[in-house]
Amino acid sequence: MRIDKFLKVSRIIKRRSVAKEIADKGRIFINGRAAKSSTEVKPNDEVVIKFGNKTLTILVKELLDTTKKDDAERMYEITSEDYERDFRNE
After folding, report:
1. How many Cβ atoms from other residues are within 10 Å of residue 63's Cβ?
2. 17 φ, ψ to 5°?
3. 3-85 — its CATH code?
4. Which residues contact 48 (CB under 8 A, 6 or more apart)?
5. What's the rounded Cα separation, in Å, for the pair 84 and 86?
6. How many CB atoms lie within 10 A of CB 65?
7. Tens digits of per-residue pLDDT, 4-54?
8. pLDDT score of 90
9. By C-alpha distance, which of 88, 55, 65, 62 is closest to 77?
10. How confident is the model at residue 89 (pLDDT cuts 50, 70, 90)?
11. Alpha helices (runs of H) in 11-87, residue ranges in sequence order
C-alpha cells in the first residue's frame, strides 16, 4: 500500500493530498530512508513523520483498504512521539 494512502486510511493524516505533500517534501521516512508519496509500506515497517515541531514514529501493524474509526488504530502502533522545544520564547 502506498504511504499516502496508509496515512489517510489509518487516520494519522486526514487527507491523502496532505499526506502526499508531506511525503514529497521529505518529511516521511520508512525504515530510515526518505519516502515519496508512492513508496510502498508493509507490516513491520517503521515510519517516521515530521510535523513542524513534532516527530511521530509508528510501527505498521496491519494494512486495510478501508476502515471505520475504531478499526484505524489496529493498523499501527505509536512507538514514540517527540516534541522540539522552542527556546526563543523562554
Report:
1. 15
2. -65, -35
3. 3.10.290.10
4. 28, 29, 55, 56, 57
5. 7
6. 7
7. 999 999 999 999 999 999 999 999 999 999 999 999 999 999 999 998 888
8. 53
9. 62
10. low
11. 16-24, 69-72
Tell me which residue has cell 519516502. 35
Give the cell for residue 9. Answer: 486510511
Residues recorded for the chain: 90
What letter does residue 36 receive in the DSSP assignment?
Answer: -
Tens of pLDDT, residues 67-86: 788 778 888 999 988 887 76
Beta carbons within 10 angstroms of residue 30's beta carbon = 20
Q: Where are the alpha helices (DSSP H) in the chain?
A: 3-9, 16-24, 69-72
b/e map 42-61, b = 16+ CB within 10 Å: eeebebbbbeeeebbebebe
d(CA 30, CA 10): 16
pTM strictly above 0.70: yes
Domain locations along the chain: 3-85
